[in-house]
Amino acid sequence: MTAHLWLENLAAYSLQVAVLILAGSVLIYMFRLKTPVVLMALWQALLLVCLLLPVIQPWHHLRQTMPSSILPAALTSFPSPIFPDAEILPTAPSSSQAWWLQFPRYKLVVLALGIGAGLRFLWLALGMLRLLRYRNGSRRLAALPDVIREVQWQVGVSPEIFLSAEIDTPVTFGFRKPAVLFPESFAAMAENLQRPIACHELLHVQRRDWLFIVLEEFLRSLLWFHPAIWWVLGRIQLSREQVVDREVLRVTGERDRYLESLLHIASLRGRPAAVPAPLLLKEGHLVQRVTLMIKESKMSRSRLVFSLGAIAALLICTGTFAAAWFPLAGAPDTASRAAAPPSAGTPVSPAPGARKPVRTENPTAQKDPRKPVRVSSGVQESKLTYRVEPNYPALAERKHVEGAVIVEVSVNEEGSVSNVRVLQGNQLFEQAAIDAVKQWRYSPTYLNGVAVPVVATAALRFGPSNPATQVFLDAQGLLKDGEGNPISLEEMASGNNPIRLTIALSVHGATVENAIKTIRDRGFEMRNLQVSSPCYAFVDGRIFYRTSLPDSRTPSSPQTFADPSFQPPLLDIDLERLATIAKASGRIKFPTGFTGEMDISFMMRLSEKGEILSVQGNSFDIPEVIAALGHTRVIAPGRCRNEFVPTEMSVRLNISF
Questions:
Q1: Which residues pair with residue 409 across a beta bridge?
Q2: In this structure, are 213 and 131 located in the same domain?
Q3: What phi and psi values does residue 18 have, to the nearest 5 degrees?
Q4: Considering the domain boundaries, does residue 97 fall inside one?
Q5: 326 falls within a domain
Q6: Minimal CA–CA distance to 81: which of 606, 602, 598, 652?
């Protein structure tokens, strides 16, 4: 998980916690819960749920697809990114970039969070040392007063008792060997005032409260930046003191004397330096504690059970809403994608006299958008929107010859193939490869905001085993073979060959969906069905309507959608912010001194409910951008014929250098 994705998840988690604690506070106030034991249990349960939120909720793992090649490296060793000298780097950005790009701002935030947590943990350690100093500088009472021995017998604990000149209010700490520190003025107090104060501290020892306070301070240090965590920890500590107050009244039965002793300690107007230990008086708690002891509130058992049940149900609903509205995202899953269609055949090695790969260099392509720009086979393959598979020649089939053909494809500004040149391969397959590639269509490539022609390589494989059956779907919904003759579903399903369904540009979405449904209802294996269309994508047995997110240079989608009733989804997306993230990620390196603009694109798949199913990079793999796109808020899903439909949206970012 990258630092940027971690920070995004931390922000989402913080919002979930804030919503849950705010809802819990409001519900406790609305139901008028004032019983200290119940309040303490509620606040502790709320804190526990907040800590377990990352575990008990589902994470949204985005699927990320990276282009790769199934051919040997020697056949795909052409320049890989958009420009010949560009590189895709997995690590640090270029040293020629400004320092603030080499150290992105979100990393500064992560550093600040770490420094803040470190300072809080340092405070906790200094507090522990301060407690040890108090204890070492105190005077131990060897002969305890009768009132303290009596209270020890009533409570059932016998910690070490000390008098300290450095404190003005009692302090209790320690787990295996607990100690109670009283101020020097405690010895001069009347016995009727010493009794409730001693009882209060001994009850803290009996309950082992110091261990819980240390744990709470650890959580406060870890989540120091979250005010809601501070609030709920403060409520827990107040409830703990109120619970102990009630126990003191139960043991001593002297409310007036206890209130008088609290006011006496408060009149000293002093408190020890910040220490991780329960204090008799804590700033801001005295008024609430005294008020609860004076005005005791009682609640019937039935009302208490109803209130707790209602609060639990409402908090579950609130937590579910918070998790759905501010989801946590896991690291994208990486799956390789072949550069050529799968085939059972194995390409044979080229003959010694076969053509060698040809590399064409064009140093002016970066400056003149009219000159073709060379791109890698993987990048250009990801832009392929319409593909026709080559026919397996009859002569090769009779001789059982298999092989591969590498061609150089010239694509014009509109995405049409203007020229095909064979670079390497068996002559038996050359013409079939040229005929097929000439029918391919690509999405345009942009340079400095202008569509430019490109040159790329493509690999085509030929083999006799399980060749794909070509089937065409016309505007009337009729299925036809490669020669334009009608074909039945029975003929399609005969044998185990995969089916490549090519959809004409003018076919409406309803026609496509009906055709797919009919094929599925006839029992055809959908995993053997391949769909080729610039307007529709077929993924995991579902049809996705293809569209593009408009930007400042392209106010409308570049694709003319066949179905006029289709409405693309509405997204709350900041393209400039995404472009900044992509630029600062350090994943793209350009030649020194290069200036200009380039476009990179990403593909998002959305369900008919507006859920983001997957995000992948078409030309560059930038996990930071993929994670940010995964958190995009979908205002409305895509619609067609007044129904929500799944969509495949292309998002193009303009990067300036």
A1: 420, 456
A2: yes
A3: -60, -45
A4: no
A5: yes
A6: 598
On whether the pTM is more than 0.70, the answer is no
CB 469 within 8 A of CB 499: yes
Q: Are residues 521 and 630 in the same domain?
A: no
Q: Of 478, 511, 536, which residue is a domain's last?
A: 536
**Per-position DSSP letters for 218-244, written without gaps between them:** HHHHHTTT-HHHHHHHHHHHHHHHHHH
Cα torsion 44, 47, 48, 52 to 10°: value is: 170
Query: What is d(CA 472, CA 506) in angstroms, rounded to the nearest whole number?
Result: 12
- pLDDT, one tens digit per residue, over 43-60 is 999 999 999 999 998 886
Are 61 and 28 a contacting pair, CB within 8 Å? no
pLDDT tens readout for residues 562-585 = 567 888 899 988 888 888 888 888
Please give the DSSP secondary-structure letter assigned to residue 348.
Answer: P
Domain that holds residue 593: 542-656
User: Is residue 345 in some structural domain?
Assistant: yes
Please say whether the dihedral angle defined by the alpha carbons of residues 515, 517, 522 and 526, taken in this order, is positive or negative. positive
The rounded distance, in Å, linking the Cα atoms of 9 and 285 is: 35
Q: Are 631 and 529 in contact (CB under 8 A)?
A: no
Distance between CA 13 and CA 323 in Å, rounded? Answer: 8
Indicate if 390 and 275 belong to the same structural domain. no
Rounded to whole angstroms, how far apart are CA atoms 252 and 241? 16
Please report, for the domain that includes residue 487, its CATH number.
3.30.2420.10
Q: Which residue, 536, 552, 586, sits at the end of a domain?
A: 536
- Phi then psi for 520, rounded to 5 degrees? -70, -45
Radius of gyration of the chain (CA): 36
